[in-house]
Structure formats: C-alpha cells, structure tokens
Amino acid sequence: MDEKKRSSGEQPLGDLIDKLLKAYQLDGKMKEFDVISKWEEMMGRAVFLRTKQIYIKNKILFLQIDSSIMREELKYGKAVIIQRVNEYAGSEIIKDVWFS
After folding, report:
1. pLDDT one-digit tens code per residue, 75-91
2. Number of domains making up the chain
3. For the whole model, what pTM was predicted?
4. What is the extent of the structural domain holding 24?
5. At what angle do helices 68-76 and 78-89 cross, to 10 degrees?
C-alpha cells in the first residue's frame, strides 16, 4: 500500500485547535475547566466532597466550602492550593483563593 506524504500545508488537528483557542483567547478558559474537572484529583476526596461551588474569575479561585473547620484549614494552605492548580494547568491561571 502506497502512503501519501502530507503536503507542507497540512497540520495536525491538535495544532490547529491550539491555534484556534489562542486566537480566540480561549486557551486559558480551557485550562480553567480542566482544573475544575480535576479538583478531586488535585485536592483529595475529603476536600472535593466539602466543595459546593468552584469557579475561576480574574485569576481568583472562588471556593464555597460547607465545613467551617475545613475552610479554615484550607485558608492556611492557600499557597499550596495556588501552587497545585498552577502546576496542573502548566501556567499561572490563579493568583489568589477566596473562600465562602
């Protein structure tokens, strides 16, 4: 079977999608969605189960935690949360964490 070589104008679909996301400035939003969907993996089951709302806006991670004790413990670990989220995303997508 004779395989045709790609012409120089063709690009892998993944590269094209990345370029499209960057062109429309959606690459950051995709990273935010990835972080939110992997919250349990990053922070563990106990934190995940107590997290009632999570979203990112203006580089701030907003968390609604239903346990006052856990909320206070997480406040002391803000730097760790910021580090884990940014490492997972591969870039700085958050600078602060706010709790409610």
Report:
1. 999 999 999 999 998 88
2. 1
3. 0.75
4. 13-99
5. 70
